[in-house]
Design goal:
The chain is built from 15 helices and 20 strands. The chain is of the alpha/beta class. α3 packs across α5. The mean pLDDT is about 95. The longest helix is centred in the N-terminal third of the chain and has 18 residues. The strands form four sheets. Strands 1-2-6-5-3-4-7 form a seven-stranded mixed sheet, sandwiched between helices. It binds magnesium ion (MG). The site of magnesium ion has 7 residues, from loops.
Length: about 450
């Protein structure tokens, strides 16, 4: 099932030369354009879509195909080039576009690519709108236009400066620069390298960049997890820098390595950002059901509160807007601050963490040690969509006394931890997360899940 083409609220994701081809991308572009025309209301103004792509070698091919599809239904396209996902989202709103498209498969391996959609607010479409777009695509019910009405294609070169300007607007640039931090940055040959080096220079940091060439040929497995970042950890240690940062290929996620070369985990990125923001001003955070309890502890310490949503940045961002949240994001290293944008943003996360270090004058390892620790275990395995429902029934029966939340897959809460079991929105896999106060309890919960998996598959 690994080659299933996924169409979800995040857009479309598949394998190049197998199920994600130029003709498919063109029809998907036409379907998105048709949706925008039908939902835009009566207006004489032309409809414009902002288009960006990450560094994958298939990016220009898919961007050209999506552009063909959009212009064939009369949509004008503004191409912002090779950018990060948060940059494309920010440019969509900044340019007043009716929608945006980002060509990326995020952290997926090199054989994948994808087409991520944004609405005018820079957010991925909520489920009902995503379903409409999918229906138009599947039925090929496209509002093609005659020759004279075809869309135009333009280019905008302001994306990096616009995004960096937004991030610099919310931190004390002078204070951070006064610390002269030394940093190692691993951009895994994705879209993050050039713009993040520019941001770090603006913040007065001395950056040692590895895998910063946006070649799309990933030097290591791109998901920013511990096993993929051993080189980064080694370089941080050898060069004796203050902190190491790792991005995924479209640079919405950030993982952190402390000054001792220790991978501290993606879950800490949002926790540290929340620690910083709540430390200045109590408020509300939004995050998904599969994110660590660390943020709840931090909120409690700061008279703040946390709203939990289904997994997916659109769900988190939507809750943030509705509840005036001052920080939000997901435990995969994705931080959202609505002052900058409506998507997860590694550049934002970098700036917030550096400002936290600067304001407290503390090392990153010291800040991490202040956060109550949990043991989290994450597993994933290839499975079609029938597996998770069977496992959910079995797990509920196995833990009859757990507090059960079915907002997204299934979450079971216990006094000493929790389990989340869900089907991925973007890949044909099942994800199991467990978190507990100690290793033995985390092992106990994951072992139980492994047994249940073996029973139903
Ligand atoms: Mg990503």
């Amino acid at each position: 099932m690994a080659d299933e083409l996924i169409i979800s609220i995040s857009g479309m994701r598949g394998i190049i030369d197998s199920n994600l081809t130029a003709p498919i991308a063109a029809v998907y572009g036409s379907a998105f354009g048709t949706f925008l025309k039908r939902t835009h209301g009566k207006s004489d103004n032309r409809i414009t879509v902002c288009l960006g792509r990450d560094s994958r070698r298939s990016g220009p091919m898919l961007a050209a195909a999506v552009t063909a599809g959009l212009t064939s239904v009369g949509i004008d396209v503004v191409d912002v080039g090779l950018v990060t996902t948060p940059t494309a989202s920010i440019m969509t709103t900044q340019l007043g576009c009716s929608g945006g498209v980002m060509i990326t498969a995020s952290h997926n391996p090199i054989e994948y690519n994808g087409i991520k959609l944004f609405l005018a607010n820079g957010m991925t479409p909520p489920a009902p709108q995503a379903a409409q777009i999918k229906k138009i695509y599947v039925s090929s019910d496209l509002d093609l236009v005659e020759s004279k009405d075809c869309g135009s294609v333009g280019v905008n070169m302001q994306a990096y400066d616009t995004h960096i300007g937004k991030v610099l607007g919310i931190v004390d640039k002078k204070l951070i620069a006064s610390k002269k931090y030394k940093i190692v940055l691993d951009s895994v040959n994705g879209a993050g390298g050039p713009i993040t080096k520019k941001l770090l220079a603006e913040l007065g940091c001395e950056a040692i960049a590895i895998n910063d060439e946006p070649s799309g040929i990933f030097e290591h497995t791109p998901e920013p997890t511990a096993e993929n970042l051993t080189v980064l950890c080694d370089v941080v240690k050898a060069k004796q820098v203050d902190i190491g940062f790792a991005q995924d290929p479209d640079a919405d996620r950030l993982a952190i390595v402390d000054e001792n070369g220790r991978y501290i985990g993606e879950e800490y990125t949002l926790a540290l950002a929340a620690m910083h923001v709540f430390g200045k001003q109590p408020g509300t955070a939004a995050t998904n059901l599969a994110t660590s309890r660390m943020i709840d502890d931090i909120a409690k310490q700061n008279n703040s509160k946390v709203i939990r949503t289904a997994v997916g940045e659109a769900n988190v961002a939507d809750a943030m807007v509705k509840n005036n949240c001052i920080i939000g994001g997901e435990g995969n290293g994705g931080v959202i601050d609505l002052r900058v944008g409506t998507t997860r943003d590694s550049l934002l996360a970098i700036a917030l963490v550096l400002e936290l270090m600067a304001e407290t004058d503390r090392k990153i390892s010291e800040l991490v040690s202040e956060i109550p620790a949990y043991v989290m275990k994450k597993e994933k395995f290839a499975a079609d969509s029938t597996v998770a429902p069977k496992m959910i029934e079995a797990v509920k029966a196995h833990f009859p006394n757990a507090k059960v939340d079915m907002t997204d897959g299934c979450r079971l809460d216990f006094d000493d931890g929790w389990i989340s079991l869900r089907t991925s929105n973007t890949e044909p896999i099942v994800r199991i997360f467990v978190e507990a106060k100690d290793q033995a309890a985390a092992d106990k919960y994951m072992d139980a899940m492994t047994d249940i998996r073996n029973q139903v598959t």
